[in-house]
From TrEMBL, chain A:
Gene3D superfamilies given in the database record: 1.20.1050.10, Glutaredoxin
Domain GST C-terminal, residue spans: 91-220
Name of the protein in its database record: glutathione transferase
Pfam families: GST_C, GST_N
GO terms of molecular function: glutathione binding; glutathione transferase activity
Source organism of the structure: Picea sitchensis
CDD domains according to UniProt: GST_C_Phi, GST_N_Phi
Automatic annotation (TrEMBL), chain B:
Enzyme class name: transferase
Residue stretches making up the GST C-terminal domain: 90-211
Single GO cellular component term: cytoplasm
Entry similarity comment: Belongs to the GST superfamily. Phi family.
Catalytic activity entry: RX + glutathione = an S-substituted glutathione + a halide anion + H(+)
EC numbers: 2.5.1.18
Database matches in SUPFAM superfamilies: GST C-terminal domain-like, Thioredoxin-like
Protein name: glutathione transferase
Superkingdom: Eukaryota
Record carries keyword Repeat: no
Amino acid sequence: MAAVKLYGPLASTATSRALACLLEKQVEYQLIPVDLKKGEQKKPQFLAMQPFGQVPVLQDGALTLFESRAIVRYIAEKYAAQGTIGLLGKSLAERAVIEQWMEVESQTYNPPSSFLVFQLAFAPLWGIPQNQAEIVKNEKKFSKVLDVYEKRLSESKYLGGDEFSIADLSHLPNTEYIVKATGKSELITSRKYVNAWWEDISSRDSWKKIREMSKAGNKK
Amino acid sequence: MAAIKVHGYHASMATVMVLCCLNEKEVEYELVLVDLPTGAHKKPEYLALNPFGVVPTIQDGDLTLYESRAIIRYLAKKFQGQGTNFLGSTLSEEALVYQWCEVEGQSFNPPAFSIVSQIVFVPMRGGSTDEAAVEMNVEKLEKVLDIYEERLSKSKYLAGDFFSLADLQHLPCTHYLVNACGKGDLISSRKHVNAWWEDISSRPTWKINFT
């Protein structure tokens, strides 16, 4: 069977989201880097796979699939019987709650956290001026969101319930950058239950592996 | 069996998305009004259902669920045997449905919602439209719709040759853009997007929401 191909740079949060799921499900894959600095994602060859010119893209046999959260759902369903079991819950109701928190991540957690990561971790590296007013605004927004997470995680070990699921997995990439690269780690660490949840999910083998791969990549 | 309760507001795009889905699946429901103009969604009673204080939230027996896109995915799976089949016939087709659902959520909705918000909701709340923001988001949305035009020139619906959740997700916001924001040209100027819009917006289940 053709190996699964994932196109994207490991440093991209969307790419590592998809990769984390491949690792959890123990799917054999090839990670094919895409050079964003050189604009590879805007070249015709890439646009033929992903017309929005964004990473990552998954190829699994005849299927070409983009949008990391769609990739995560597909991998979790297709390879349901292998690797970490229960990523989609054990019932329709459990799956529904997991999907709810996937959407919360997508619509409510991602926008302010992505903004902060871009402004605080990447803008300085790339010589782009920071927007201080917007940073303050987004930090406030993100804090309010995290307060809701704190309550949820005080009542439930993981977002979807008792078990680790794709909902928790979806949060790994942005939260890693928030904690490691923005100088705003206290947003996570100052909240008892959010911090415990973060420590737990980021110490899973899949995320440890991604951290190792990132380190190895940065040494080149 | 008790009808599904939908806590929401008739003018809320997210609420209407869920109601349309229930219609498509031929599922009985009860709409429980959450009066947004008086701040009902921020009161303790509602926050107990949805701690983010946004509509809609559904109650189906013991299950309380929010986020409209998660709700319609739940309904599509739960009622898979009845009404419209929203998820395709194979895992690969289902994956493409998820892909275009994500495109709606990540690329179409942000600029489209901003336009509707500025033109319709901000004045309703006593503010004035930020024309520069509208212009910026129209530009963004045009780029997205160019890609839709290309896709829909090759595929009758977004995920394939079948109407899916991905198409349904676009109904409420596009309806507002065309009918309440004077931005119909964004759709009508694109041959295949227009044909797609004419098709999905003339579904009987969609028309029901606005009578």
